Each structure stands twice: as structure tokens, then as C-alpha cells.
Queue: 4 jobs
Job 1
Amino acid sequence: MNYTQKMLQKDALKNKTVVVTGGGSGLGKAMSQYFLELGAKVVITSRNEDKIQKAAQELTQLTSGEVLAVPCDVRHYDQVEAVVQSANKHFGSVDVLVNNAAGNFISPTERLSANAFDTIIDIVLKGTKNCTLAFGKHWIAEKQTEKVVLNIVTTYAWTGSAYVVPSATAKAGVLAMTRSLAVEWAKYGMRFNAIAPGPFPTKGAWDRLLPGNLKEQFDLAKKVPLKRVGAHQELANLAAYLVSDFSAYINGEVITIDGGEWLKGAGQFNLLEDIPEELWDMLEAMIRAKKDR
Ligand code: COA
């Protein structure tokens, strides 16, 4: 067994319908594929109609599962409400919402126009709010219970990060929303959790976060104590667990899956890792000498 293998038992998501925003590519598509393999029906959304239609075809071929592709820009509440309608019409009901759609690019903040900042906030924070509110209101009105919302955040939702300030600001808001609604809407039978992934290479994110030869200059695997980037299946395994009934008592949690990356940046003395053994011998001698005096 290893981390690239599929973790949950077959049919773990049978009879569930899952909506994955941004499900046409990257991690959204990887999660959608695994949900389908576990017996779920999946609705994928994206702004790009061609892209999701192609992704839906591909996912159907790969898994023989039932996939519905609905074009939607999560920034617009009316479009999100239309997803609620078409998903319910097609599959009868929706059990899980995965707020995965995101927008991000690196930039010094002073170079951003007000609209550039808004664009990221609108996709990430407002988009998550739109989907959560539309599905949440529907579930409450219909008195449907045992619903799950899974938000994809990032470790810099709590540390902050230079050069991706709109994204950090928006993801911090999403995390606050996750924890707040985990408490407020538990009475309606909803659970809210989040995943904070570290580096999981995808084309969409890498082209915007490490364009050109930055990929070679900043080998993100080196920043990770485990010295590797994540595999899509290990994220899909965690997501499937968190949307399944096996995690029924987990509510309001954010689970980091980053090989220890953010903690490596946080610990005050973590940089001592670069000190070679001989230098440690010298340092130890110096420290002990102080004690003897
Ligand atoms: N640096 C500075 N400003 C930038 C920029 C960059 N690299 N890229 C876009 N902008 C600005 C634009 O100039 C525009 O501002 P303006 O109207 O004041 O000129 C604003 O951001 C919106 O850009 P636009 O291209 O009109 O928005 P869009 O809605 O078509 O695209 C993005 C949204 C910019 C987030 C685009 O990268 C995208 O579609 N991303 C989705 C996928 C993604 O980001 N995946 C990674 C997730 S980690």
C-alpha cells in the first residue's frame, strides 16, 4: 500500500450527489474522478463550458459514473442558484458541496488594480459564499439533512502570504466561514470542513504561481520536510473521507495536507537543518563550555 492508492472502500459514496465547483480541471477533476469511482453522482461546474463538457465526457469514460456539467461563474449568485436547480432536477437532491473553484496569481500588491484584487476576492470568497448560501438555504427550506460542505483553502489562510495577498485574504475569510457555519448550521444537519493543501502541482495553479522558469528556480519540493510535492490521489483520498459518512463526527475542522511545509517556515530554529554534523560538534562544545564556567 502507498499514498497513490485509493483508500476508501468501494461504494463509500454510493447514493450521494456531489457538486464540485471548478471540477473541470486540476484538483477539482481529480476529486470528482475519485468520488465517481466511489459510486457518487457528480456535478462539475466551470466558467468554461467547453472545458467542463470535455471533462464530463472524460470522467464518464474513465469511471462509467454519472456526471452532469453545468456552466457557472461562481461570482454570480443567479448562476449558482441555477446550478442548485439543475443539479436537483437531474439527480433529485444534492448531498455534498465542494467549494474548490479558485483564482490566483502572484503579484506585488502595489501593482494590483482595485479590480484585480476584487477579482480574486470575488471568485474565492464571494464564490464560496454564493454556493454555500444557495445550497444551504435550499437544504434548510427543504428540511434536508446529513449535508456536507468541504472548502478547499490553503495554509496561508492563517499565516498570510506575501505576493498572493488577495488570495490569502479571501481564503482566510473562507476558513472563518467554515468554522462559523460548522456551529451555526449544525442544527440543520450540515457539516463544514476544510482542506489546506500544500504544493500539489496542477497546470492552472503552476502557470499562475510559478510561471516560466520559476518552476525550476523554486523547487517547492525542497520547502517540504518530506521532500516531495503531493500526489492528487492523496488529496482525493482525504476529500472523499471528509465528504463520506465515515467522517460524520468531524465538523469545523481544517486538515492540512502539505508534508509539513507551513510548519517548516514557521518554527524559529527550523533553518538549523542546514548545519552540518561537524559544525554541530563545534557548537555543542561551545554550548557545554558555557555551562562549565
Ligand atoms: N498581474 C496583475 N493584474 C492582473 C494579472 C496579473 N498577472 N492578471 C490579471 N490581472 C488583472 C487584470 O488586469 C484585471 O484588472 P483591470 O481590469 O484593472 O485591468 C483583473 O485582474 C481581472 O482580470 P481578468 O483577466 O479580466 O479576469 P478574469 O475573470 O478573466 O480571470 C483570473 C480571473 C485573473 C484570476 C484568471 O487568472 C483566471 O481565470 N484564473 C482561474 C484559475 C486559477 O486562477 N487557478 C489557480 C488557482 S490556485
Job 2
Amino acid sequence: MFKIRSKDLGIDLGTANTLVYVKGKGIMLREPSVVAIQTESNKILSIGHAAKEVLGRAPKSVAVVHPLKDGVIADYTSTTAMIKHFLTESNKKSLMGGKPFVMICVPSSITAVEQRAVTDAAREAGARDAYVIEEALAAAIGAGLPVWEPIGSMVVDIGGGTTEAAVISLGGIVTSNTIRVAGDEMDKAIINYARKRYNLMIGERTAESIKIEIGSAGDLKDEIRKAVRGRDMVTGLPKTIEISGSEISNTLSDSVNAIVDTVRLTLEETPPELAADIMDRGITLTGGGALLNNLDNKLNKKTGIPVFIAQDPLDCAALGIGKALDQIQLFKSKG
Ligand code: ADP
Ligand code: MG
């Protein structure tokens, strides 16, 4: 039988999505970081897409959990189970057997103890060995920025739980700031708005689709509207309302402003030579939040610096870990 020698894997363990990169094959798996658990027996019912499907639709006996919150492990047992499941799935897809060597990206703000929890979870899930790489660095590598050179590169990664703005030079993070405001916070703001303005209860998934379809960081040229279904809090019955893009952009403004402030703060903390590089080369946005309409324009207006959305922003961190697997000796000291 044809056998693949390398068993190196990269895992982008995100609060919203987990991606697995298999060396020599590319990204083999993209799944929501969601686990459905039977509450009484603690039995895991489904993981990933299948679990997200039941989010907001599950009976009381089933809890649908996000094992990671704000970029750190919120629930160790479900995190381990999720990593185990995804490793098995990608092994099947890529026809690899045996125990893989795993490199995982984590937010750079996490503590040594939390890092340890991540690598332990991977080992418990069957990894031969596990190392971590900072998420901002992985995202910058994946976005094709010249991270190894003595040139300042700025990446802003907007995920589900956290936004991180980081300046990188010579393969390391020079300054960075992380806030717990990103996609999830935007969804929450939409849920609150629908409740307060329309007495309408909507779920997480509906809020996310409103954000993706008509959400923006403001200044939309054409007004777009969307029919939204939920439960009327007064009558208790199902109800449909229409929401406009400008209502949603107002609703998202606190989150957007927090992201702008974090980028500005990080620029202020950047040494002048590197700041000059960033002026010339611009800021690169990665993570799913980079796709929010007009966020690039808003950041450009508020910083005076060119802003680019990375190609495939949702894939950047996983692709970056993939490239980093080839330079593994540079990272081994960090595990
Ligand atoms: P994480 O690394 O935390 O898992 P991701 O980089 O996978 O996060 O991004 C997920 C977030 O991006 C979610 O909050 C999702 O709603 C958001 N997102 C995805 N596509 C879009 C879009 N087109 N517009 C706005 N937000 C988006
Ligand atoms: Mg991420």
C-alpha cells in the first residue's frame, strides 16, 4: 500500500471554527467548534456541523456547548472530545494512520497554564506530541505577510470570541492587544436589539445570519432589508419582522468601535520604524470578522493607513500553521 510518511497536522482551534491542516494535503477539515451533549448522561451526541445544526433547536435534555470561549478552553472535557473527533475524521480523509505530530494555534494572550491545557488536550486526543503557535503569527504567515523579515507587518484577526491586533517583525510579535469583542459579541448585540426594539426573541444562528447578510461597519450605499423570524415576547407566538441594514450597522457600532480603538492603540504602541513600514504596507485583516461589510473602509478612515482583507480570511491561521510545520524547529522551544 502507498504510505504517507509525514504525520504532521496543524489545528486552528478557534472559538467559532476548528480547521485541520494535513501536511502535504492542505486543509482537510473545517467544522464549527460546537459539541452537543446529553445533559443527564454527559454523553456526547454530535460534534461540529451536526452539533451546530441543533443549536437553538435542541430539547432541554441536550446542551449545545462551545468548548472554547473568548479564545480559551472553557470546558476541558468537550474540548478534548472535539479534538479527538476532528483528528479521527481528518485521519480518515487523508488516509493517515498512527499518532500525528500536532501544531495548534492559540491566542497570544493566553497564559502558560491555558497553553498547557491545549497541548494536553491534543495529547489526550491522540497526538504523539503537540506544540503551540501564536494565532496572530499563524494568521500573518497564512496571509502571506513577510513575517520572517525585519519589516513591520500588522495583522488584525477578528474571530468569534476575540479580536487581536498584532505587529510582527523577525518572526515574533512586537506588540499586540486582544479584546473579547468579535463576531459573537456582534451576534449578541443583534439579539439584544431585536428584543428591545421589536420584542422579538431570536437565536444565535439567526443573529449570525443577519450579521453576515445585512450587517456592516456603516456607510452602506444601498439600504438592504431582511425578513427575520422569531418569537414575540408579548404574545409568545412566532412573528416575522423586517430589519434594515442601517439598524444593524448602528447595533454593531459599539463592537466596531472597540475593534477600531484596539487597532489604534496597537499602532500607538508600535516602535516608529515598524510603524513607518505599516504606513507603507498597510494593515491586513484575517478571521471571519474581516468579512464584515465596510470594516476595511472604516479602519482605513480611522487610521489613515491602507487596509486589506486577506485572501480566504477564515483559512489564514490554518494555512499559516501549515507553512510553519515546515519550519518546526523554530517553534519547538515554545511548547
Ligand atoms: P475563530 O478563529 O474564533 O474560530 P473565525 O475566524 O472562524 O473565528 O471567524 C468566525 C466569526 O466570523 C464568526 O463570528 C462568524 O459569524 C464571523 N463571520 C463569518 N463570515 C462573516 C461575514 N461574511 N461577515 C461578518 N462576519 C462573518
Ligand atoms: Mg481564529
Job 3
Amino acid sequence: MKKLQGIAVSPGVAIGEALVMDTEGFRIPRRFVARDAVEEELERLHRAIDSAGAEIARNQQAVAFELGEQYAAIFEAHLRMLEGAKLRGELEEMIRDRHYSPEYAVSRTFRRYAELFEKLQAETFASKANDIRDIEKRLLRNLLGRRREGLSKLTSPVVVLAHNLTPSETANLNREFVRGFVTETGGPGSHTAVVAGALEIPAVLGTGPFLNEVSGGDLVIIDGDEGLVILHPDEETIARYQHEAEELRSLAIQLEELRDLPAETADGQRVVLLGNIEFPYEVDHCVARGADGVGLYRTEFLYLEAETEPDEEVHFEAYCRVVKAMQGKPVTIRTFDLGADKVPHLPEPEDERNPFLGLRSIRLALRNVPMFRRQLRAALRASAFGNLRIMFPLVSTLLELRQAKMVLADVVEDLEERKIEFDRNVAVGMMVEVPSACMMIEQFVGEVDFLSIGTNDLIQYTLAVDRSNKDVVGLYNAADPSVLRLIDMVLRAANQRSVPVNLCGQMSSNPLYTMLLLGLGLRRFSVTPSAIPEIKKVCRTVTIADCEEVTRRVMLMENARDIKNFLKGELKKRVPEIAP
Ligand code: PEP
Ligand code: MG
């Protein structure tokens, strides 16, 4: 049994067979071959060894010619190993006697060799392990070739283990069979984490390297609450986690009873609980949990799922579906927030060294006005079918907001001229997720109908910490006093002017922060739909006076660790069943 600590990004427990994606996205299932297919599979192995050998020999010749014989020697060693009788014998034995598929035999054998060299520790041997992986990859490429299967073609439940998954790869995971996933890289605020929440499956990111230690088909436990991954669990651990999964199910059933009750504090203060969605199907999750509306629809996923830019009709249909399903409750369409870790099929900027500080989000929209207009037109047309609001992301200056509003006004005029129906009173708001917007909040509140605080980015830009980098996860903290002060500034300014203000970063989905945010004056939370019952439970248990006292004490504290510990204690006192 081996335990790995990663970053918990989506709660719950998953116990299942591993599906391993290596760094090149190869899927190596544990597969067996039928007795009468053994000879054919051995043939396939031999052909793969021969073509891998031919590739290495070609490389050897090219390098010898370009750089000299001494540099080509490395390929000579690769060839010797690949064509050696020992390796061939071992692989054949696995296929003939154990009926392993050639892919599985290759992955198991090479993993064992690599581990052996890694254990020897000396640097020369460690680099040998890399050589071995190189040969393995070459062989797998030859074996799998075009048969490389997509993650979408699954037929039985698995937990996916990968080096990295982009937000769009995550979005395309098969929702029927993928029970959870783990990646070696990735940070707490990454959009891969956000999508895990949308899929409602346990997920752990940023464990560091471990893929060499598992094979497809091994049993793995994912503890999405603690950020733990357990490889080869023993009987006792499996039983403990099965019990925990059972308890989580019964807590969920208990919380379901709150569905039709309002999110209201014990002293009668109404709180608005909205859902964050990435895909139209999630509107059903919102309805099922009794959400008061959709507080954030991350429309950029329409672009990430498609090969080419979605046309106006694709947008229109998606927005109509959501707006109609919410039956008059508000739906906030956030215009596309592409760039940084969400890259569609747009021409890439040439020199994007700091993608999170680069041509992202509203900046990208203002540079691609025709594309921006197509989306705005679709959103306005959909506004005729329900309660739709439009929100601009990552606004950092007043001029930017005004420019975006001008493009919108232009589209409005166009629709009016063409006598196309839409809601003339559509509310227009902005995300507050850059410190500059907080600093200028007094000016911004005068120019919008509503605000939404995006703490995922606000934490990143306030503390200068990449939200998707596991190596700086210690700094990425919603409880940092600097972040809390900025939220406080925004809430004060908005509440003073009675401009509705929402908080749609991941922070609002964490019950740890509910009392603090209520105490700061927040009354609108937009959360991952699966978090609605828990947040409602906290709201219905506490009083505003209680929350204000918690907040008063928090705002006297100087570091995130003390604040988190204090909040954990306060939550445990009041709602022990959901406290971490
Ligand atoms: C945020 O930044 O908090 C937010 C809600 O937007 P996103 O996570 O999509 O950047
Ligand atoms: Mg953001």
C-alpha cells in the first residue's frame, strides 16, 4: 500500500481500477488475450520490436552523421536492450503463459526495469531509467499506433490517473464510467479543478510523479476530501473507505431534505444561493439542488469542446436551454474567458510567456470583436426566453469595461434595427477578480448593474501565485488576510450603493468560509451545484450576529493558517456533520 498526498479539488471517495495515461497520453489497460489469440499477439509484439528497432537504427545513423559516433552510442545501447534475448523472452513469457496483452506486458516489464535502476540511486543509473522509459514509449507507440483509444471510449468504471489533464480533456472525460481522477501536476485553482466539480467526481491534483508505480487495473482509492491517493490499498483501508463512502451518501440524502427550503439564516436573513456551471447539462444539477439561479455560466467551455469557433446558433441554443430550464430565475452568462489555461483553436499569441498576465479573457474579446459580437448577439437573443444577465470577466480598468459595454450597445442597436426580440433591460455586470478593480471599486459600482467577485483569480493576482501550479500551493489561500481585505472593500462599496454583489470563486463553495462571508456582508453565493446543500445547511444554522462576531475576530488575525484553524473550529462547533 502506498499513500500520496496531493491537492483536494473535488470531494468524495472513489474506489476503482486504475486507467493509467502516461505523459504522452497513452492508455495502458490491463488486458488479457484469449488462448487462441496468443500466437497472433506474439506476432504483433515481434513486429513492434522490429519497427521500433528500425526507428532506433535510423536515429543512430542520423546522429552519427550529424554529431559523431560517440553521441550515437546511446542508441546503440537502446538497440541492444530492445533486441536482447532477455527482454524478448520475458515479454513472450508474459503473453504466452500469463495471457497478458503485449501492451500490458511491455508496460509491466519496463516499469520493473525502471524501478530497479531508480533504486540504485547513483545518477548514471537514474538516467538509465529514463532510457528505459524512452524505449518503452517507442515500443508502445508501435504497438498501439492508431489503436490509441480515446478516454471517451470506456466500457467499465475506472479511476483515471494522468500526468496532466487540460480543462478540455477533463471536460471530455466519460461521465458514465470515470469515477474520479488524479493528476501529477496542477494546482488548486486550475480550471481542471473547476471542471472536476462540474463532473461531480472526486479529484486530486498535484501529487507529484507516481505513474511509474501503477499499472492499469491496479486498485486505487481517491479521497477527494483529504487530497489523498492510495495505491494498492490493503483490505482494512478498503473497508474503511467503503464505510466513509456510505456515510457520505447518507449525509447527502439527509441534506437533500433542504432542497425546497429557502437559504435563510436562523435569524431570518435571506441568502441567495446560485449555481456555477460550465456546461448546459449542469443546469439540471442546479434545478435538482433547488438553486436560486445560475450565478456564473463559464461559456468558454463551448469553445473548448469544439474544433472550430462555435457559431451564433450554437451559443443561442446552449443559452436558451439553460435560461428555459431555470424558469424565470436569473442566469448569468459570463462572456468567454479564454486564454491562460483555457486555450481554444485561436491563433496563439506569439510570445505568451505569462499566459495568466497576457491576452486573456475580456482582453482577448476586445481584440476579437466579431467573435465577441457573435456571442453577445446570441446571449441577447436568448434573453427573450427568460431572465438572462451578461457579465464581463477579468475587467482590470474602467476603460476596458466601457469598451465592452460599447460593443454590447452596438449589438443591441443592431438587434433593434432588425427587429429581433430580446430583453431591453438585460442586466450588465462585471467580475471583480483583479486587485486593480477592487482598488477602483467606487468608480466601477456606478457603471454596472451587478458585481461578482472571482476569488480564484483574485487570490492569484493578489498574492502573485499561479493558481494552477502545485509548487506554490501553500501561498494560494482564500483565507489570506490580504484577499479578505479586498473582498471587504468590494462588499462595502457595493452594499452601500445597493448594487447586488455575488461571490462566484471556489471560496464560496467551501462551507469553511460561509460564516465569514456572511459576516462580511455577502448575501449572494454562487457555488458548484453539488455544494448547494452544504452551504444552505450552514446558512440555516447560523445567525448574522454570530457571523459578524466570527468575522470581527478573523479580521484581527494576521495569517491564513490562524484564520483557517479558527474557522474550522467555529464550523465544527455549529455544524459538526459537515466540518472538515
Ligand atoms: C474566479 O476567478 O474566481 C472565477 C470564478 O472565474 P474562473 O475560475 O473561471 O477564472
Ligand atoms: Mg476568473
Job 4
Amino acid sequence: MAITSVIGGQWGDEGKGKIVDFLSENVGIVARYQGGANAGHTVYIGEQKIVLHQIPSGILRQDCITIMGNGMVLDPVGLVDEMNMLNNLNIETKNRIHIALNTSIVTPIHKAIDRASETATNNRIGTTCKGIGPTYVDKYNRVGIRAFDLLNIKSLKEKITARLKVAENNNELIGISISSIKLELEEFYKAVTQIAPYVKDTFTLLHEQIKNGVNVLVEGAQGTLLDIDHGTYPFVTSSNPTSGGITTGLGLPISKIDRNIGIIKAYTTRVGKGPFPTELFDDDGKQLSNIGNEFGATTGRPRRCGWFDGIAAKYSCQINGFTEVALTKLDILDTFEEIKVCVEYEINGKTTKSLPSVMHRLDEVKPIYETIPGWNKPTCEVEHFNELPLRAKEYIGYLSDLMETPIKIISIGPERNQIISR
Ligand code: IMP
């Protein structure tokens, strides 16, 4: 029996979906512990591209069941869409999706508040507008709707009607038509009746299965630098994607995790607003964006691209306690003559290797780069680590030294088989 966690080590979009899919081969349960439909986990199976937003990627493995933990904020309408998409691909969802009784629920009101906040106020974060922040606000304000509320539609409707009144009275819905929310609510209630049978005591299920020796994979969404506590606040998401979130978001003690894998891209990307020290605005940035096809899986927004940030990556390894790193999208660097890696930040004429010491002024730091020669050879068909070009191996070794963490998995393309482990 083994419990493995997979956590984004940068600003999200590191390619977690593919790594979770790869690791879930002999796993009985894949569980998510935070976030919601703001995630977009892309998996390619042959020609088929599958994007999952809420359902853990383990659903794509026949023998796997999935748990959506209490730390998540779950959108019933989005969940039904996702289940329909999977059913159309002949992937069974019945008895394979389990929603914790105390998972927070995103309603059309929360999505509307998110949209209003992004368009009509000065508090613009560049969110995905999926209602994530407003749902967590209600959770922590102790007025949230939880999955067990879906089991009693009459009292659910009363709670939602009351919440809508509060939102109107508090001017939370500036610029949003109330009648459009009411229409969305009809669809919401339909979705609720469809997903209610999936709500159950996942805590007991998870712990019993672990006792029975079932392998478990814990799937993070977003990334360490989007963490509400440890990320680039306020330009963060509203949950804890870092390993600490596993304990609270699933009721699974961190001491149970055997293998804690950080997913880190061979360069850096970010969607939405906020500081990004190694961001590129030149041809190299365009090349990363084009070759890497860097567009958000959830919103379609172009991702900002930049060189590997060794300071941020090491910080991420420290916070999460990664036992190893899976390096993704190495192949995107195949055609670069030279590759840069940020090894220090400069601010006010002083240099630092500590991200937390400059977190509050991250938009002012200047990255200091080490330049590494590129390998200029395709890597996408390589099957074993030793077959990689020497300079690619050196690059991997260099990043590993910077992060003080071994790189044990390397992804070299979007397909299920384009992966090297060592
Ligand atoms: P929210 O999570 O929708 O509230 O968005 C807050 C910030 O996190 C925005 O900058 C989003 O672009 C970013 N974000 C949220 N989810 C993801 C993700 O899965 N990948 C990358 N960025 C994300």
C-alpha cells in the first residue's frame, strides 16, 4: 500500500493531469483536496484530448474510484457537464465519484459575485470567474452551502434564496442581472438532484480503503505560488494547493503520505495577474508560448511564459517537502540555442535567494540568470533517461541541484507514453 501526492510546484498548469494519469495505473483511489472548476487537467489518450476540471483524473482508469474532498469547492452544474462528457466517451461515472458530505458548494450566486468582482470593482485578480473565491469566503464566514445540504432540496432552496437577498442588499452583484441568476438556479437545482446520490462519507471510505491496502493518489490543483498563504498574495487562488491542504482538505494526515511529488515545468508559466519575475516579452517568450501551446485549459487565456525560476522552485520544494520532482514539458526547450535559469533575485542593488523575503515586492525584483547551452535535438521519442541528449541530462541535473530535490519523472510530450521515469 502506498499513498502518493501530486502537487503543482509553480503557478499551476504544470501538467499535473498527465502525471496523475500516469501514476494512477495501479491505484484504487484518486482524491482531490482543494480548488474546484478553476482547474483544467488535460490528458491525451491517443488522439483523444480530455480536459477535467473537477473530477480527479483517476476517473480515466477503469479500476479507479475518485473522491472529491471537503476542501474542494464543487460546482454541481460543471460536474454534471463533466460526467456527461465522460459518459459520451463510454467512461463510467456511476459508483466511481464520491463527494464528501462537507464539501463546499458553488452556486450561480457565487459565480456571479466572482464575475461582478472582476468587472465592476478594483479588486481584480484575473480569476477564472468560476466562483472559487466567493464560495471560500462563505465557507470561512460560516454561511456556506455544503454537499449534505444537497440532500434536502427544500431547505437548500431556502438557504439559496436567503443568500441571494444578502448578495443584493450588500451590492455584491453590481452589473449582474438577477433574473439571469434565477434562470441559472433552475439549471443548478436540476444538477443537484443528479449529483446528490454521489454525496457520502468519504472520510470513512478513504481510511477504510487505506487500511485494506489500497493505493491512493492525492491530486492537487493550481500550484504552490497560487497558495492563499504561501503564494503571491493577493494574486492567488483562495485555497491551499500546498501539501498542508491535504490534511485539512481530505482529513488525511500528512504523515501518511509516502511519496510527495512536485510537478514542475522545465520553464515557467502563469495565467491571470500578479508578479512573475522571469516573465519574457521577447521572441523567446513567444517561442515558449507557441511551441508549448500555452493557453489556459479552463479559460483559454494565453499563459504568460518565462524561464525556469530556480528560486521559486526551491521555495516550493521546501514548503511542500517534495520527496521528488516530475519535470514536465522538457521537449518544449528542444529547439532553443540557449536556455536561461534564474538563480538569484536582485532588488535595490542587493541580491537574495529567498523568495519569502521579497514576496511583498516580487514585482520589483530583477532575475539574475545562468545561461545553459541548449541540446538542439528532439527528445519526444526518448524512452530511457540515458538516451536523452547529454545537455538535456545536464539541464535536468542543474535544476535538481538548484531545488535540492531529485527529478525522477520527465515528461517529453502530451501523450500517455511520452514519459521517462528513473
Ligand atoms: P481563481 O482560482 O479562479 O479565484 O483565480 C485566482 C488566480 O489563480 C487567477 O490568477 C487564476 O488565473 C489562477 N488560477 C486558478 N486556477 C488555476 C489553474 O488551475 N491553473 C493556473 N492558474 C489558475
